[in-house]
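Why do we care about 3D structure at all? Because function follows from shape, and shape follows, mostly, from sequence. That is the central idea of this module. The next example makes it concrete: a single protein chain, its amino acid sequence, and then its structure expressed as tokens.
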Amino acid sequence: MILQATAHTHKFLEARDYRSPDDAYETPFQLAYRTKLHYFEWLAQNQQHAFNTGEQWYDLYPFEERLGKDADRVLLVDIGGGKGHDIARFKEKMNLAGRLIVQDPPEVISDIQPPLAQGIEALTYSWFDVQPVEGAKAYYMRTVLHDWPDKQALQPLQRIRDAMAEDSVLLINENTLLETGIPKFNTSVDLIMITTFSSPERTDKQWLSPLERAQFKVVKVWRADDQGAGANALFEAVPVQIKTSR
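And the structure:
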């Protein structure tokens, strides 16, 4: 939200002969969101958008139909899932059988308080290492892979592929860019990603490249109704079965 206002700062200052703003109701924020409301007034009316509590990846994806039910199997591994906020919401809404695991470096996992809901396990893990959870039904990443350029993104993808069973799936919930006519906010995020991580925000075609190089096939891209900024696409991919010579 702040970045979108920042992206309009030049236009705002240009129109004011570069005078500093002095009115809480006349800022780049009002220009960016085309509103006369104060930031907090706007926030109160738009909390669903502001806190991204609207359509989530599990609202897009027919989980039971695609992945089935198996109480004895790891159902989902949330790689880079922080303190488990996303997987906890998933469990609360879906109420499916099967083990759920969230993975992140030790400094994140050790800071989880209070304990995760029953049925969710926390596991310390660096995704450049061998994936310790083998044969899970789904391996999931939300807006973490975009922090890495293809050069480094390939390794965690290959680690996942090596751990997968034949019927496992990879779910990547990510930001995507249009091929042309990219909005200013998305462009500003792209520049920030390049500056900080050497990793551009990707179009669909650019997402396919590292996945294919890591021996994955994208079977479908599930999309949110709101195609603005944020994790607006869910890539469902399966491992390519590599033929071996006898």
